[in-house]
Amino acid sequence: MEKGYKASITGVGSFLPEKVLTNDDLSKMLDTTDEWITKRTGIRERRIVENGVATSDLAVEASLRALEAANVSPTEVDLIITSTVTPDCLFPSTSCYIQEKLGARNAGAFDLLAACSGFVYALSVAKSFVASGAMKTVLVVGAECMSKITDYPDRSTCILFGDGAGAVVVQQGNGRREIVTTHLGSDGSKAELLTIPAGGSKLPASRETVESGSHYIKLRGKEVFKQAIINMVDVIIKAAAANDMQVEDFDMVIPHQSNIRIIEAAMEKLGLPKEKAFININKYGNTSSASIPIAMDEIEKGQMLKPGDTAILVAFGGGLTWGSSVIKW
Ligand code: COA
């Protein structure tokens, strides 16, 4: 068991834009079908922001809901950590825009980048701040406008992604939703499997980068698919061992929603029934770091876990990165 104070999730909130982009809509724009997308990914539709909406706009709505659920005012927040691959701009951080819009005038603010694993990474940082006693109240946000970095003519990637935001408030333990352990991993040797090549210091934005579409997500789907299964399985086994548990002792697996076949293959390798994995990818697609807090909010609203149940959050993404977090509900 880790030392220090206990850190609990005292409020959860999420926000999804209203506009729905269905597989049938995509099949009118591209050479694809509802049947192919549903069968290969489990996705039926995803939400997309209107023009002019930025990641911080979604994040603020999710944050307000999480703060309300925790009965915490924005001025009580000590720190805002936002995980996103679609920041409002390269700098300042999206967290600073959220801080201003919330009126969280006593909070520090920074962004954290671990792609689709980012929420689990950010939760791990929040837990450490709270468990050490350095902070009392940390707002952790996963928010994405994936539609802004998606190359819609590219049928092998554009079918996957959607927009949305989720947030949680982490405070000293109140006996509910305790963050028991976190495990993080990475493998930078496979960075090229999932990346936006242009727009940073290595390949600054230019007419050429825009013309070649290098400012959009580039994904080597088959290789990422395999790595996701291997590392999600491994980090669940590690978490079980660290807690003196068997994997079957988890009441629910709350996975990053990347592809239903990845999730089902991981469950099968672990010898767990697929019904133990929470799934909502059919409605929202892959919302990157927003997917786990959105799932947590749906689980909370639906009372799908009861006090004392043990859930494991598990994520995988570009970097490569992966992580898990055991939550005693
Ligand atoms: N509609 C119809 N056909 C499509 C298609 C689409 N949207 N996208 C690809 N295809 C075609 C390909 O062109 C290929 O045709 P070919 O056999 O004639 O060459 C065929 O379908 C198979 O393509 P492939 O890329 O091998 O499919 P796949 O089974 O690997 O599925 C992904 C593609 C992207 C759905 C899958 O690899 C995946 O989900 N990977 C993980 C991606 C991910 O989640 N990344 C984020 C991690 S956080």
On the 0 to 100 scale, the average pLDDT is: 97
Oligomeric state of the chains present here: single chain
Alpha-carbon distance between the termini? 17 Å
Percentage of residues in DSSP E strands: 15-25%
Number of helical elements: 11
Radius of gyration, CA atoms, in whole angstroms: 19 Å
Classification by helices and strands = alpha/beta
Number of E strands: 13
Q: Which parts are unreliable, with pLDDT below 50 for 5 consecutive residues or more?
A: none
Q: N-to-C SSE series?
A: EEHHEHEHEHEHEEEHEHEHHHEE
* Helix content range: 25-40%
| Small molecules in complex | coenzyme A
What's the story with the biggest beta sheet? 5 strands, mixed
Q: What general outline do the C-alpha atoms trace?
A: globular
Instruction: Enumerate the strands of the largest sheet in spatial order, edge to edge or round the barrel.
Output: 1-7-6-4-5
Q: What descriptors fit this protein?
A:
single chain, 329 residues, alpha/beta, five-stranded mixed beta sheet, four-stranded mixed beta sheet, 23% strand, binds coenzyme A
Short description:
The chain has helices at about 25-30, 35-40, 55-70, 95-100, 120-130, 155-160, 205-210, 220-240, 260-270, 280-285, 290-300; strands at about 5-15, 20, 45, 80-85, 110, 135-145, 165-170, 180-185, 195, 220, 250-255, 310-315, 320-329.
